[in-house]
Amino acid sequence: MVANIVTVEDLDAFADQLLTKISKLLVQEQNNPQGKWLKSHEVRRLLRISTGTLQQLRLNGKLPYTKIGGILFYQAEDIQKLLNDHKTINGYPVEQEPEPSVPAVAFRTRRARTPKTA
Fold first, then answer.
1. Phi/psi zone of residue 90: left (φ > 0), alpha (ψ -120 to 50 degrees), beta?
2. Is the dihedral of CA 61, 85, 32, 49 positive or negative?
């Protein structure tokens, strides 16, 4: 049986290789947020909303979530969908074209007067 002796240089080389691979994986994960899960505090910071607003989004069914052991997780793609669904231009949803501006004029109809009988 042949024994291989591991030197400090071997360990340093292995550590460098391992760190390089981990760095590449982290960069890939950051470039691909599609499978990324966020905790509540991350979602609140990202959207700049309060705890109560996030709770209302959950209760109204506008933002799906997963609860594991008391911790709420949200998918990044669901947050992106929420933002896209509420996108507006000049107060109108992006999917709909704004109607031409027609001035609101109040018309009052008059009833025909009936002549007074003497």
1. left
2. negative
pLDDT of residue 109: 55
Sign of the C-alpha dihedral, residues 43, 47, 52, 57? Answer: negative
Low-confidence ranges of the chain (pLDDT < 50): 107
Residue 55 falls in which region: left (phi positive, over 0), alpha (psi -120 to 50) or beta? alpha
Neighbours of 57 (CB within 10 A): 19
pTM, two decimals, is 0.51
pLDDT digits 0-9 by tens, 18-46: 999 998 888 876 666 556 899 999 999 99
Rounded distance, CA 33 to CA 14, Å?
Answer: 29
Distance CA 37, CA 34 (A): 9
For residue 45, the number of C-alpha atoms closer than 13 Å in the C-beta half-sphere is 5
76 in Cβ contact with 66 (< 8 Å): no
How far, in Å, are 41, 42, 50, 54, 113 from residue 47 at the CA level? Answer: 10, 9, 9, 9, 61
